[in-house]
Amino acid sequence: TQAPDLAVRWNCKAGKCGSCSAEINGKPRLMCKARVRDYTDGEAPIVVHPLKTFPLVKDLVTDVSWNFRVKQGIQRFQPRPKQADGTWRMSQRDADRVQEFRKCIECYLCQDVCHVLRDHGKHDEFIGPRFFVYAANLEMNPIDVEDRVPALKDAHGIGYCNITKCCTKVCPEQIHITDNAIIPLKERVVDRYFDPLTRLLRVFK
Ligand code: SF4
Ligand code: F3S
């Protein structure tokens, strides 16, 4: 009622569309899930800033289109041939493992808080935690046959992540970004490129 011309992006108001991300009293949050009453005791005034990691459009609206371009650069789902009965099957355990990653609402709070993007501006060399979650969802799907490990090591810059876990702390979907997505992907890169035994076996192939 006090600033009818304030630019702010929102859609569902239920914490599911990922549109209303901002920094409230310095912490990345979804505005629709932040209650004024949670801040009134000793935290006045409440200060709301736009996401710092992306270019400002106006007021609380930032241009997050860099994320859309990054997503386009990740190798697509590539299914293996169907089984004889015309279906694909996967174990419940494998289904549960990737299901966690599919909860992502693309709010980009994790991208906003990761120091590699926020403080070091490595947008050209590092895809950020959101897209390691996306890559993990594809890479850990047993039906998928695409190999994303070389790109994770080089173009996607997974080595820049030094496991600070700031991304995990701000995820509104409580995805274990670091432990369940990034670390297993890092292990795949290490196994492929830096494990001495694997390197030795490659020489004798
Ligand atoms: Fe948002 Fe979590 Fe998805 Fe990151 S992983 S974009 S914090 S929902
Ligand atoms: Fe950044 Fe998360 Fe790694 S905040 S440094 S991607 S653990």
What does this structure look like?
The chain has helices spanning 65-72, 92-99, 109-113, 115-118, 129-139, 149-153, 166-170, 177-193, 196-203; strands at residues 21-24, 27-30, 48-49, 56-58, 61-62. It is mainly α and 205 residues long. A 3-stranded antiparallel beta sheet has the order 2-1-3. A two-stranded antiparallel sheet has the order 4-5. A hairpin with a 2-residue loop joins strand 4 and strand 5. The longest helix has 17 residues, at 177-193. The model has no long low-confidence stretch (mean pLDDT 94). Residues 104-110, 129-130, 133, 170-173, 175, 177 line the site of iron/sulfur cluster.
Strand adjacency order, main sheet: 2-1-3
Gross geometry: elongated
User: What percentage of residues falls in helices of 4 or more residues?
Assistant: 25-40%
Strand content: 5-15%
Radius of gyration: 20 Å
Query: How widely separated are the two ends?
Result: 70 Å
Order of helices and strands: EEEEEHHHHHHHHH
Number of helices: 9
Major sheet characteristics = 3 strands, antiparallel
Low-confidence stretches: none
Features:
5 strands, 9 helices, binds FE3-S4 cluster, elongated, 205 residues, 3-stranded antiparallel β-sheet, 35% helix, two-stranded antiparallel ribbon, single chain, mainly alpha, binds iron/sulfur cluster
Care to give the gist of this entry?
The protein is mainly alpha-helical and 205 residues long. The chain is built from 9 helices and 5 strands; from the N terminus they run βββββααααααααα.
